[in-house]
Amino acid sequence: MPPRVPRNLLIVDDETVLCWVLGRFFSSAGYEVDSATDLDEALERVKRGRYDLVISDLRLSGTQSEEGLIIAERVRESSPATRMVLLTAFATPELGTRAQALGVDLVLSKPQPLPDLAVHVSQLLEAPR
Question: Residues bearing 4-aspartylphosphate (predicted)?
Answer without folding.
Answer: 57
